[in-house]
UniProtKB/TrEMBL annotation:
Residues 1-19 form the signal peptide. CDD domains: lectin_legume_LecRK_Arcelin_ConA. Residues 208-228 are annotated as: Disordered. The keyword Signal applies. This is Legume lectin domain-containing protein.
């Protein structure tokens, strides 16, 4: 699998407040903008999981709360996030499980017993459900026949997630370094009816009995976190 230039960028256009924009291209210890839980650590990139251990979970989230709809009017915001990541399976012939980009209430912690196919967000105790309001997009490398679709691609991926508040369209587009044709999916959802007005955003990754590494971010460029 090729190495890739990795980054994390978010733009939120808030009709009821000042717009928020940040672009982080290098993740370093002590940066107050990113909070880490579980296995997740910064080393230029975010390493969500240590592939040397089984059944582990790591979270990396933006440390500040993010407003996604106005509690007075119910009016939601548009947002776009772009990131490039690497899932490295070279050290194992059997690998898993994957990671997810998610939006959830502020102050939440990693769910117990949520390693493996639960991706650090769900667990069997709650009937395969999250313990908190949650919207997430999975990048899954292991087929769990209880819930996963077939035809999972493991190539290095460049992704963009966009929410159009007028049409309530949550969409993702992605392209692979070794696959020529870009792809996309969308889902119609009113985030104001699913999530609280202020959320945390970030990434959650997990391993099970099979392992792999999940990296987001890279140290090739100076770190910038502009807030407009």
């Amino acid at each position: 699998m090729k190495n890739s230039v990795l980054f994390f960028s978010v733009l939120l256009v808030l009709p009821f407040a000042t717009s928020l924009h940040f672009n982080i291209s290098r993740f370093t210890p002590g940066d107050p903008n990113i909070a880490y839980q579980g296995d997740a650590t910064p080393n230029g990139a975010i390493e969500l999981n240590n592939a040397g251990y089984t059944c582990r979970v790591g979270w990396a989230t933006y440390a500040k709360k993010v407003a996604i709809w106005d509690p007075e009017t119910g009016r939601p915001t548009d947002f776009t996030t772009s990131f490039t990541f690497k899932i490295d399976t070279r050290n194992s012939t059997e690998f898993g499980h994957g990671f997810a980009f998610f939006l959830a209430p502020q102050g939440i912690l990693i769910s117990p017993n949520s390693a493996g196919g639960f991706l650090g967000l769900f667990n069997e105790t709650n009937g395969y459900s999250s313990r908190f309001p949650l919207v997430h997009i999975e990048f899954d490398t292991f087929f769990n026949d209880e819930w996963d679709p077939l035809d999972i691609n493991q190539d290095t991926c460049h992704a963009q997630i966009t929410y159009d508040s007028a049409s309530k369209n949550l969409s993702i587009s992605w392209s692979y370094e070794e696959t020529s044709n870009p792809s996309s999916l969308f889902y119609i959802i009113d985030l104001a009816k699913v999530l609280p007005a202020e959320v945390t955003i970030g990434f959650s990754g997990s391993t099970g009995a099979n392992t792999e590494s999940h990296s987001v971010g890279d140290g090739l460029h100076p770190s910038t976190t502009p807030i407009e």
